[in-house]
Amino acid sequence: MNRIKDRFELNNHVVVITGGAGLLGAKHAEAVAEFGGIPILLDIDKEVGQQVSDRIAEEFNVNSLFFHCNITDESSLIQVRDALLDKFGRIDALINNAAIDPKVDKNSTKNLSRLENFMLDQWNRELAVGLSGAMLCSKVFGYEMAKKRKGVILNVSSDLGIIAPDQRLYRDENLDEDKQSVKPVTYSVIKHGLIGLTKYLATYWAKDGVRANTLCPAGVFNEHPDEFVERISGLIPFGRMAEVNEYKASVVFLISEASSYMTGSMLVIDGGRSII
């Protein structure tokens, strides 16, 4: 009998996770490992990435691997791809999670987070990782899935991929207007762009058995200042930020056979923020 719970299993599935050393990247890897998959962590932080991979391998008794990799360098991705194909013979899923989280500038006399002051170099650097990197990973790893006629690409966007940032969250009434901090433009553009990339991939490789979907999480609490937490919680019907472990089940759903008829779609898990 084909049981529903069996469709969530990731037994020996080789799952590439970019930004694997980060807060959510590590949680995605834990979710993969808990359901029997093989998490492959990619990150530029060599020390932390290896530590996360080693911890997951020991804690979940799985074969977890770490690759020190710059996802904006296609040749580096090809090396990882070839190593995985040599070892496992396949790649089953890709989670495009890597991003540079642009910080709200609170210190500069010329606030560099504001659009009128935003530097082109910063724009290029953040889009290279968050958007171009996701495209390159999809190209390199997704094509291997297409050749096997089976696979899943999961792009991690944000609630700010479907709504605009509310800049009132960052406002300081003691500052002049031109000094007010804002969520930088790159974050919204990248997160919206990932949804567009998802739709493109979903139709491009549909006949080859490769599915592509987007996860749109809300802000995850990570020792944020109390004032910010209070402000953003007031915009969320649930009245709180997300907890770090609350996206594990959704990741398993999206990269497993549990979502076998889902492609080109967004799974929005934001406590209701985007509906009001």
Describe the structure.
The chain has 276 residues and is an alpha/beta fold. The chain has a single domain, classed as NAD(P)-binding Rossmann-like Domain (Rossmann fold, 3-Layer(aba) Sandwich), CATH 3.40.50. 39% of the residues lie in helices and 13% in strands. It has seven helices and seven strands. It has helices at residues 23-34, 46-60, 74-88, 120-148, 185-204, 226-233, 248-255, and strands spanning 14-18, 38-43, 65-68, 93-96, 151-156, 210-217, 266-269. A seven-stranded parallel sheet has the order 3-2-1-4-5-6-7, with helices on both faces. Helix 5 links the parallel strand 5 and strand 6. Helix 3 (74-88) packs parallel to helix 4 and helix 4 (120-148) packs parallel to helix 5. The N and C termini lie far apart (43 Å). The relative contact order is 0.15. The mean pLDDT is 96.
Annotate the secondary structure layout.
Blueprint: E1 14-18, H1 23-34, E2 38-43, H2 46-60, E3 65-68, H3 74-88, E4 93-96, H4 120-148, E5 151-156, H5 185-204, E6 210-217, H6 226-233, H7 248-255, E7 266-269
Parallel strand pairs: 1-2, 1-4, 2-3, 4-5, 5-6, 6-7
List its salient traits:
276 residues, alpha/beta, Rossmann fold, 7 helices, 7 strands, 39% helix
In sequence order, what are the helices and strands, one letter per element?
A: EHEHEHEHEHEHHE
- The coarse silhouette is globular
**Portion of residues within helices:** 25-40%
Count of individual domains? 1
**Terminal CA distance:** 43 Å
Query: In the CATH classification, which architecture applies?
Result: 3-Layer(aba) Sandwich
Q: Give the low-confidence spans.
A: none
> How many β-strands, per DSSP?
7
Average pLDDT score:
96
- Report the sheet-strand fraction: 5-15%
Total DSSP helices: 7
Radius of gyration: 19 Å
CATH class (first level) name: Alpha Beta
CATH topology: Rossmann fold
